[in-house]
Amino acid sequence: MTNISRRGLLRTGAAAGVLAASGLPLRAQDAKRGGRLRMGLNGANTSDSWDSRTHSDIFMTSSAQGAVFDSLTQVSAEGSLVGELATDWEASSDAKTWTFNLRDGVTFHNGKPFNADDVIESLQLHVAEGSKSAAAPIVEGVEMKKTGDLQVQFTLPTGNADFPFLLSDYHLLIYPAGQIEEAIAKGIGTGLYRVQSFDPGVRFVGTRVDSHYKDGEAGWFDEIEIIAINDPSARMNALMTGQVDVINDIDFKTEPLMRQNPMIEVFEVTGNHQYTMPMLTDTAPFDDVNVRRAIKYGINREEMVQKILQGHGMVGNDHPIGPANQYYAEDLEQLAFDPDQAKYHLKQAGLDSINVELSAASTAFNGAIDAAQLAQASLGVAGINVSVIQEPADGYWSNVWLKKPWCLSYWSGRATEDWMFSSALEAGAPWNDTHWDNEQFQKWLIEARGELDSEKRAEIYRDMQKMLSEDGGYIVPMYANLTGAASTRLGHGEAIGNLFKADNNRLAERWWFTG
Amino acid sequence: MDSVARVVAQRLLLGILTLIVVSVVIFVAVNLLPGDFAQAFLGQGATEGAVNAIRRDLGLDQPLVLRYFHWLGNALTGDLGTSFAQANFSSFTGTAAENLPTVASQIAPRFANTMFLAAVTACIAVPLALTLGILAALYRNSLFDKTVNMVTLSSISSPEFFLAYILILFLAVLNPVLPSISNIYADMGLGQRLERTLLPALTLTLVVTAHMMRMTRAAIINLLASPYIEMARLKGLSPMRVVVRHALPNALAPIINVIALNLAYLITGVVVVEVVFVYPGIGQLFVDAVKNRDIPMVQACCLIFACAYILLNLLADVLSILSNPRLRHPK
Asked: So where does this one cross the membrane (chain A) (predicted)?
């Protein structure tokens, strides 16, 4: 892994140019140009457009950030941050002022040369009057100054060591300044593939541009076609019959059939996508840390991974930081099913047995009701009597989640620790689904945000994960894998991105035909 | 001929009346669906404030009756509204809501695709059903008759997705002659388009053939007992000529009715087949819209389905009048 390079990159990305080679697929040496890639992806909608502010699902993120457009920075398949339209960057010591140098000689698909104006105007889109872009919190209050034709200086309201990382967000695409409306209508970017045809909710066809700054590093296909196949069986059929070369999100029930086919490779990576069981830590009986600990030991995580995810996942450790995060503390002690420990902690709370209610509905995640029943069975052994309340799926997120003392939920995770913690566990945050309010935790959160020394940050984030794992109410029984299947004619790097589906949205850019 | 025009005008008026009643039913039913667009769209982010803001933006906080007349008035002038998903996306970007694609412009290409699929299916299914029906009537109670009956009845009794997967298994997996997904596009040549459409069309053929074939058979057999058929036989005409020339014209009215009903089904009942074959028709659009509680889109689709039924039934009525001299020249 590239832990060292990732951390070294924090303060300055000056080495990004050198690192670019290692940030790319390790086997890219074998890659060669040619062929027409056909991808079958879900998440397509008739209301899709090239406006990145509306992007939320894999079909558009793969078509836009993964093919037609570029961002300032990108996360490599190995997880390190490398430059895309930016070549390198540097922060002031308080992590408030960031200077980005931009790539020279880049042109948009319509011939317009790329420069600092494009960056500023594109990022301003997200804070435009009335805009509800999900990326608004990243650029809100950021002062942007053109300090050269190919240099931009950002001044942040408060120090944020993650800023270059946040700029790799799939909403923050770079459009040509002064022509943004046209660029959104037609799909004009600086990416490897220009739009040949786009039929919202049906398909996108892109043609490789003749010359590109990523030549020799990415963009191996001559043409790509992304086909919207929302139905899982239809997606599988399409791959099995050779109508497409690669699909995402395989159906676990038919997966053994797929594995039998020698022409198909099933691939999966564990990322940050997590199924959770948040309990309100300010509501009895979950306000007692001993009760929370008893429940942590009473849940059989291994069984849940096997039965709910059919083994396509990993046990969680009751904090929201996943393997796709930079400072994921994998050396923390893993919580495991231990009825004796659970009984011990229950005793500490002064109880022999306890009755609790767990609210569940299928909308929380696939198999949520089954997961609740598994929890009921294993907790019963430890003297914790769970009654599973089946809630209606409609209105679950407004009537049950954040309201009932204990329920099921999910989080897709965030690219950075700070973003994740401040969304789900910062005191006062609207989505703080455990009502977590811990003074020390708050202090650490603020401290780490402005800390540029990555060793120190790693330590703080480790402490925060440890605290949640031991005391928190944010139960994470499992991480669900990101899955897909591809024809064996396709080649890819040794690592596959685990932040987003389809190799961090960039499959069309990174993969190639071997045959 | 005058009387025919009057009957058609009468039926047309009745059709419009039916349509208005249907529009009320659609509107009430869609609005009674549990859950609403704001919650379906926001998912986990559905806080009370956000839900209320969206409901206000989309006019969902207005009384039901007011919304109905507003919708009906617009629909009568051909304006089916803007889909919620579009309107909501526009508020995301802060752009004006004027240049958004309307429901009508989103449905049009999808509807054209569905009509294409229906046409291809009809071209296969109608002649096939008629031929099989006539032959079954001709050789009734023979082995042929029994086999045809059994096969068509079992295919109509199986769920569509099952038939679809059986066809995929035999025609796309074991003998890869046809593509398993039918993704067609605007700029595709007719030949390729037909090839891609064939598998869903065959599935639908299996579904609709039985009904039409059995009605043809029953109507003809019914007539074969009539005295004038006996006369024709006594004249020494061949059985084929008796059936085709003498029995069939008089059996047309019920057959046309059944064909019209099945054609309407080809437009409105293709949802499952379109999803299985990833065919970009109105059925898929409809499923997405229901999933997202996109009310204008659902209402527009329902209205189109209702129109298809009413118009095709009207056409069937008119055709059966024209095919029957007694109705054509009433005393």
From this structure: none
- Which residues 6+ apart lie within 8 Å of A156 measured at CB? A95, A96, A97, A98, A141, A142, A163
Indicate yes or no: CB of B278 within 8 angstroms of CB of A431. no
Residue B169 touches partner A, C-beta closer than 8 Å: no
Look at B185 and A47 and tell me if their CB atoms are within 8 Å: no
Which residue out of B37, B91, B92 would a mutagenesis test of the A interface target, given it has the greatest number of A Cβ atoms within 10 Å? B92
Task: Quickly list H helices, A250-386.
Answer: 255-260, 289-298, 301-308, 339-348, 368-381
Residues of B in contact with A244 (CB under 8 A): 181
B181 to A397: CB separation less than 8 angstroms, yes or no = no
| Nearest residue of A to residue B102, measured between CA atoms | A47
The reply to whether residue B89 touches residue A197, judged by beta carbons under 8 angstroms, is no
Q: Please tell me the total number of residues recorded for chain A in this structure.
A: 515
User: How many angstroms separate the Cα of B14 from the Cα of each of B11, B17, B71, B329, B330?
Assistant: 5, 5, 21, 22, 21
Structure tokens at A458: 């790693």
User: Residue A17: what residue type?
Assistant: G
Based on the number of CB atoms within 10 Å of its own CB, is A71 exposed (0-12), middle (13-18) or buried (19 or more)? buried
**Interface contacts A/B by beta carbons within 8 Å:** 112
Dihedral of CA atoms B110, B112, B113, B117 in degrees, nearest 10, equals 140
From A351's Cα to the closest Cα of chain B, the distance in A is 35
Distance between CA A251 and CA A255 in Å, rounded?
A: 6
Cα torsion B291, B294, B295, B301 to 10°: value is -80
pLDDT in tens, B38-97: 766 666 555 666 677 777 777 777 777 888 888 888 877 777 777 776 665 555 544 444
Helical axes B295-322 vs B248-268, angle rounded to 10°: 170
CB contact under 8 A, A49 and B51: no
Reduced to 3 states, what is the DSSP secondary structure of residue A28?
Answer: helix
> How many CB atoms neighbour CB A330 within 10 A?
9
Residues in chain A with CB shorter than 8 Å from the CB of B83 are 46-47
Residues in Cβ contact with A188 at an 8 Å cutoff, skipping those fewer than 6 apart: A108, A109, A110, A175, A176, A179, A182, A195
Domains of chain A from N-terminus onward:
3-263+488-513 (3.40.190.10), 270-480 (3.10.105.10)
Instruction: State pLDDT tens for residues B247-281.
Output: 888 888 888 889 988 988 888 888 889 888 989 88
Kindly report, residue by residue over A113-166, the tens digit of the pLDDT.
999 999 999 999 988 876 667 788 888 889 999 999 999 999 999 899 999 999
CB-nearest partner of B181 from A45, A132, A234: A234
CB contact under 8 A, A203 and B275: no
Contact A131 B42 (CB under 8 A): no
Cβ of B89 under 8 Å from any chain A Cβ? yes
* Gap between the Cα atoms of B191 and B189, Å rounded: 6
DSSP class per residue in A473-498: SEEEEEEEEEEEEEETTEE--SS---
Q: State the CATH architecture for B108-291.
A: Orthogonal Bundle (1.10)
pLDDT tens-digit readout, A197-232:
998 888 999 999 999 999 989 999 999 999 999 888
How far off is chain A from B32, nearest CA to CA, in Å? 13
Task: Determine whether the interchain pair B288/A238 forms a contact, defined as Cβ–Cβ distance below 8 Å.
Answer: no
Place of tokens 């569940």: A360
Band (pLDDT 50/70/90 cuts) for residue B31 is confident
Contact B85 A201 (CB under 8 A): no
Instruction: Give the separation between CA A504 and CA B12, rounded to whole angstroms.
Output: 57
Please check whether residue B175 touches A, CB under 8 A: no
pLDDT of A28 > 60? The answer is no
